[in-house]
Every structure is written in C-alpha cells, then in structure tokens.
Amino acid sequence: MSQSSIEWTEMTWNPTTGCTKISAGCKYCYAEVMAKRLVAMGVPKYAAGFEVATHEDELARPYTWKAPRTVFVNSMSDLFHPKIPFPFIQRVFRVMQDCPRHTFQVLTKRGELLEQYGQALEWPGNVWMGVSVENQKVVHRIDHLRRTPAQVRFLSLEPLLGPLPDLDLAGIHWVIVGGESGPKARPIKEEWVLDIQRQCARAGVAFFFKQWGGKNKKQTGRLLGGQTYDEMPTRVAAY
Ligand code: SF4
Q1: CA of 238 to the centre of ligand 1 (A)
Q2: What was the pLDDT predicted at 52?
Q3: Is residue 179 included in any domain, yes or no?
Q4: Could you say which of 23, 176, 180, 236 would form a disulfide bridge with 125 (CB–CB 3.0 to 4.6 Å)?
Q5: Is residue 36 within 6 Å of ligand 1 at its C-beta?
Q6: Residue having the nearest C-alpha atom to atom 8 of ligand 1
Q7: Does 31 contact ligand 1 (Cβ within 6 A)?
Q8: How high is the pLDDT of residue 1?
Q9: Is residue 234 a part of any domain in this protein?
C-alpha cells in the first residue's frame, strides 16, 4: 500500500501488477511508465515489469491497517485482466469483505469479464466498482457495470478523449471526469465536461472533476466554471 496523490482516493493497494493495452485511453498508461521506473530501481515486486503478476503477500495487508481508509485497488494493473485467475480475484474480494472499515475502489476497462465474474462474487457495500470510459467507442463498458451486482457503481471518464453526450446513468452512483496529463497529453474540451456535469446533475449522480491535465496539471488545476466538484457517493456499508 502507498499514499496516493489521486484526488478521489487516499491509498493504493496492488495485489496484482502489470497489464496490456486495450483501448485508446491506455496509450500513455501511467502504470506502464511507473512499472518501468520501478524495474530500473530494482523493486522486487516489479521484477516482471509490466507483465501481469499476482502477489500473494499483498493479500494480508488491508488487515493490518487499523484506521479506515479509502483504497484504490490496482492502480498498477487491471483486476479483471484475463490473465488474472478467477480464484485470485475471489481472494481479493474476500479480503475486501473481511475489512468493512475500509472503502475499496476497484476500476477496470474489462467490462465483459467484470460482468461474467461479477455474478459469482460477493459485493459488500464497502467495495465500489467502476469502469473507465474515455470515449464513445467504449461506453458499452457501462452496460456491463450496470449488470454487475455491486452496491456502488462508478465511472472514471479519464482521460476524457471525446464528448459523451448520451450517457445512460441509470444504476450509476458516481462519475469522475479528468483530462490526460503528461508531455503528450491529448486535449480535453470544457464543453464535454460541462455536458457530463449537467447529465449527472439531471440524473442525481455524484460528480467529481479531477483535473484538466495537460503538460502542467498543477497550472491547469481543477476548477470548472470557477468551482471545484468533489462529490462522492454515499457509503452504504455498515461498519
Ligand atoms: S487498462 Fe489501465 S493499467 Fe491496463 S494498460 Fe490500460 S491504462 Fe494501463
């Protein structure tokens, strides 16, 4: 586990590492860049680089965190990657179920496997399940998420690469929007973000605007129409 600078979480936990690119949002994958850096630093956990790997020893960690934490699961991977065995995913879910004091935010781009495996998983209220959607081409991921029996469902529309004018937000509790950051960041348009914000307001869905991104994300900041949007879904788990 490590502290995270991501605005909508506190910590990251990576029981699996590594991934393969699946859609346009993956082009400048942060996890891949980080994995290369960690290999160069000789960090044993990243000996396999960006190859998919499971880490047994990570499964014990959440039990050791005494204070409640909001935890982004797999910032360095995709838990529903086809190379991750289903029994290992079940064990990750068992850990999350065993630790109701923490809120776990799981995010995937593999909507099909999420839906398929999701029917056989336990979904306590402290596990928030999300899909990444960067453009219109991959909005079908939202339908897979909707058919997954998670109690809290969210969308990460980041890096937002195009307009998403007709989002079906039925059964969705939270939407995060963000622009790409880094030297080759692709542009985001304010009109796309405002349109999504309006769709969320109409549907009564919590809206979080993470960042404009670009080459210097500190400079571009996270104000939208002069204000920040930091809404979060209501936690449904019983402590
Ligand atoms: S799914 Fe996520 S972790 Fe995997 S390559 Fe794409 S951006 Fe990177």
Answers
A1: 32
A2: 98
A3: yes
A4: 236
A5: no
A6: 29
A7: yes
A8: 53
A9: no
> Does residue 237 carry a pLDDT above 60?
no
Over residues 27-47, the mean pLDDT reads 96
**pLDDT tens per residue across span 103-149:** 999 999 999 999 999 999 999 999 999 999 999 999 999 999 999 99
Q: Is the CB of 27 under 6 A from ligand 1?
A: no
Q: Pairing mode, if any, of strands 70-73 and 103-108?
A: parallel
- Residue 165 falls inside a structural domain: yes
Q: H/E element holding 13?
A: strand 11-13
Is residue 26 in contact with ligand 1, taking CB distance under 6 Å?
yes
Alpha carbon 83 to chain centroid distance?
19
* Burial category of 83 from C-beta neighbours within 10 Å (exposed 0-12, middle 13-18, buried 19 and up): middle
Cβ 134 under 6 angstroms from ligand 1: no
- Domain total for the chain? 1
Q: Ligand 1 centre from 31 Cα, in Å? A: 7
Q: Which tens digit of pLDDT belongs to each residue from 143-169?
A: 999 999 999 999 999 999 999 999 999
